Amino acid sequence: MSVHYTLNLRVFWPLVTGLCTALVCLYHVLRGSGGARAEPPDGGDGGFPLLKVAVLLLLSYVLLRCRHAVRQRFLPGSPRLGGHAAFSSRHFREPGLSILLESYYEHEVRLSPHVLGHSKAHVSRIVGELVRAGRARGSPGLIPGGALALAFRGDFIQVGSAYEQHKIRRPDSFDVLVPLRLPPLVALEPRSLGEEPVLAPAFRGCFVCALKAPPSPLGASGGHWLRDCKPFADAFCVDVRGRRHLSATLVLRWFQSHLQRSLATVRYSLEGRCRVTLTPGGLEQPPTLHILPCRTDYGCCRLSMAVRLIPAVHLGDGVFLVAPPPPPLPSAPLLELPEGLRAEALWGVNTARQEQKLLSWLQERAAPGACYLKCLQLLKALRDLGARGLDSAAATQWGRILSSYVLKTVLLAVLLRKGAPGQGWDEEHLGKCLEELVQFLRDCLLRRHTLFHCVLGPGGAAAEVGPLPKALREAAPVDLLAAFDGQARELAAARLLSTWQRLPQLLRAYGGPRYLARCPPPRSQRTQGFLEGEP
Where are the membrane-spanning stretches (predicted)? Predict the structure, then answer.
């Protein structure tokens, strides 16, 4: 994505005014130190030319404010959502939506490339030292020599929006996969649960991994192999329908304790650069590494960052199983698992490498200046605006339905339907492109379209992302919104439409420079659902 810098007028004009004031003061100081010889013979004021320059700058600032007010009032109407009666029932009457979108993007959404680059480099250095220390420490041997122990592979993989160029607001949170190395005598047989009968939709994207003998001379057969792998199976596996399966819960517990020991090794060497703490996530969340700047750190990007360290098992072709799997919804408790299937054995799947390849494939075929990633950033900002005014329970439900991964999948689905971002995805059509994403997302919520995972199953984009492991090719397609009931989806769709229709007022109320006129503040009444009150 091409990066461009724009002039921040909120900083520029005060800076120019301050410089001119300093020059006037300096002139008067030098003039006074010159004594009577610097005094004009007629008693006139020699500082009058500089005073005129200061007045001209002040008039320029006033004219600039008037210019933006005039443009805001007299520009033609903003884009309208069409195609469905519900979208066209209430048209925008607020002019200048494109100006508001650009202003909100520049001041509230877009990340500074400089700060983001420094943050990613800092995270890479700290996590790299921690992972190398973890690999050097090894793992407490389950048998003499540690032949059947888990260990860090020694590398790490940075995933998420910060590394796909569509993160918004602040570069203060990152996701990092930490691949684990299995013992040589152990191999995995992953299987998708998508075809499992009587399974709640929230678990259809999960996998289970049975242990099997590797196809190598190291692997024994039958009872000998089971006897040799017993220490590893006792420490990291659970029984599922009479067969030993790798447990995400036990692996996560080991991973957190091993990280704590590794951090104790490198903490002293990091004291001069930052303060590092590790917060365990329990059995439902991966641990989080908190990186805090030191008091003696005078760098330009002194940010506090949180890095989620996710244990991952490589399946092949850049696909990883991760622990723990995505948390189930309150409406889909673990009691709904079929008989014989244990929650400890469930793994999530991470296809970030394939999704990055897919984004690169689209970028190669996109027209110059395509703004599809900018549209994704604005779609995330629209979701955040829609959450304003909701109580904590409703905001949590809203964030789960419109998660960042769902919004990214909406963008990929719209682009793949067209083959590549064409001329219609340039900056001039930013509002129209954002409208198309909002409309498609609303249709998916109302079940007019199905939002499938972009990689899993036969309907995935396998041709564009390269080869996939057999378990993913044979997996059933996963509907990302199937876990939510019809009422929750309808409420979210209505909330999305309401937020879009009031977008100009929301943009004025919550963002933009001070010279844009702000509308009256919205009602502050708290709501108990998606549609009660205004955010």
Answer: 48-64
Q: What is the three-class DSSP state of 175?
A: strand
Helices 486-501, 392-401: axis angle to 10 degrees equals 90
Q: Where are the domains of the chain?
A: 112-215+224-328+340-350
Rounded Cα gap, residues 514 and 517, in angstroms: 7
Tens digit of each residue's pLDDT (9 = 90 or more) over 345-374? 999 999 999 999 888 888 888 888 889 999
Cα–Cα distance between 51 and 248 in angstroms, integer? 72
Give the closest residue to 110 by CA, choosing from 512, 509, 484: 512
DSSP 195: T
- Helices 48-74 and 9-33 meet at what angle, rounded to 10? 170
| Nearest residue to 530 via CA among 402, 348, 416, 361 | 402
| Secondary structure of residue 412 in the 3-state scheme | helix
Those residues whose C-beta lies under 8 Å from the C-beta of residue 393, and which sit 6 or more positions away, are none
Mean of per-residue pLDDT scores for the chain:
79
User: Does 35 have pLDDT greater than 60?
Assistant: no
Distance CA 378, CA 160 (A): 17
pLDDT of residue 93: 41
Decide: 495 and 84 in contact? Cβ < 8 Å: no
Q: Is the pLDDT of residue 50 over 80?
A: no
Residue that wins the pLDDT comparison between 111 and 442:
442
Confirm if 505 and 94 have CB atoms less than 8 A apart: yes
55 pLDDT exceeds 50? yes
The rounded distance, in Å, linking the Cα atoms of 140 and 149 is: 7
Can you state the percent helix, strand and coil of the chain, rounding each to 5? 50, 15, 40
How far CA 40 is from CA of 30, 36, 53, 90, 329, in Å, comes to: 14, 9, 20, 69, 82
Residues of the chain above pLDDT 90, percent: 39
Cα–Cα distance list, 129 to 125, 155, 307, 354, 427 (Å): 6, 10, 14, 27, 41
Tokens encoding 86: 């519900």
Q: 10 Å Cβ neighbour count for 284?
A: 11
Both tokens assigned to 307? 């890095």
Q: Please tell me whether residue 285 adopts helix, strand or coil conformation.
A: coil
Q: 112-215+224-328+340-350 has which CATH code?
A: 3.30.460.90
